[in-house]
Design a protein that fits this description.
By secondary structure, the protein is an alpha/beta fold. It has one domain: TIM Barrel (Alpha-Beta Barrel).
């Protein structure tokens, strides 16, 4: 089982207070995660304030940092730590230049970069970014075209593409990635996302679900990958969970329910997840409880508890939670 951390490139207001921390904290936390033995650090991707965050923090504007640039800075300060995006919002990125950025970061980190892509949680953010250009656009269709573009550029010596949203002609993208095949992970947990994973993904970075639903989705990805002629074992199952650790289950649940993450979950209720399961289905509890949860996840086929989110009211509290988890869960599980 692998364990990794999601740093706050775009979590102010969403999970953390405003302000929370700056670039120096992100780089220092990358160094700390390498020291603690985490597999990787991941940055999330936001461009502007969500409506519900404006309501929660009137008059305050969250600081969002571009994740690829932050990860490049962390790469230069570490040696073995892997780096990922959780997620890069593909419909808000021009895919040819995104492919170049991804392979450049792969090269400068000597194969340590993993890029997870997805639709993005908030359509309002997409609409703010795109304005009139994206009026009536379907993000799922943009996602499908973007994945086809990335797949071509990562794997073909020369390629062309012509679609509704994207087109290019005779691009030779060199060099190719140091890591082969390029570790392209796909986020999301609806059925369209699972099909994309089975077709294109080297990994699945899904969101939390109740355990039985997670097991069903893992089985579906594996079955569809086999039907598409892929080796199901080649797809890493790397769902994202939140972590709140404390001495007792009761104390951990209280800490979690008082965190900013709860409002974020409520803002995403449209995804169909039953929020009554959010404590049980995430890594919330005492070290002993969390160890039991991780063991169950391993048993249903999870390979990597990825981009773990540590809700906190300060950078120091987040550091403390990461260290506590590394010492009392990660080390013992290994």
């Amino acid at each position: 089982m692998k364990f990794s951390v999601c740093i706050s490139t775009g979590f102010e207001g969403v999970m953390y207070p405003i302000p929370f921390g700056g670039p120096e904290d992100l780089i220092r936390q990358g160094i700390l995660c390498e020291k603690l033995g985490y597999h990787s650090v991941w940055g999330n991707d936001h461009i502007t304030t969500q409506d519900y965050v404006r309501d929660l923090f009137p008059g305050k504007v969250p600081n969002f940092y571009e994740p690829l640039i932050v990860l490049a800075a962390i790469a230069s300060a570490t040696t073995t730590l892997k780096l990922g995006t959780a997620i890069t919002v593909l419909p808000m990125r021009e895919p040819v230049y995104l492919a170049k950025q991804a392979i450049t970061l792969d090269q400068v980190s000597r194969g340590r970069f993993i890029m997870a892509v997805g639709l993005g949680a908030y359509r309002e953010e997409f609409a703010a970014w795109g304005g009139e250009r994206v009026k009536g656009a379907r993000r799922g269709d943009m996602m499908d075209e973007g994945l086809e573009v990335l797949n071509k550029l990562f794997n073909e010596e020369r390629s062309s593409f012509s679609g509704k949203y994207y087109s290019y002609q005779d691009i030779e993208l060199a060099p190719k990635s140091f890591a082969q095949p390029f570790p392209l992970y796909i986020g999301g947990h609806n059925l369209e996302s699972l099909e994309r994973v089975a077709k294109y993904g080297q990994g699945w970075l899904g969101g939390w679900r109740p355990l039985h639903e997670m097991e069903e989705r893992i089985a579906l990805i594996k079955r569809r990958a086999g039907e598409l002629g892929r080796d199901p074992a080649s797809i890493e199952i790397a769902p994202q969970f939140s972590v709140t650790i404390d001495k007792t289950m009761e104390a951990a649940e209280k800490r979690y329910m008082e965190s900013g993450l709860v409002a974020h979950r409520q803002s995403l209720a449209y995804t169909g997840r039953d929020l009554s399961h959010q404590v049980k289905a995430n890594l919330v509890g005492s070290p002993e409880v969390i160890l039991e949860k991780v063991a169950k996840l391993r048993d249903i086929g999870v390979d990597h508890c990825s981009a773990l989110m540590f809700p906190a009211n300060s950078v120091q509290e987040m550091d403390d939670q990461m260290e506590w988890f590394a010492t009392e869960v990660m080390a013992k599980f290994k």
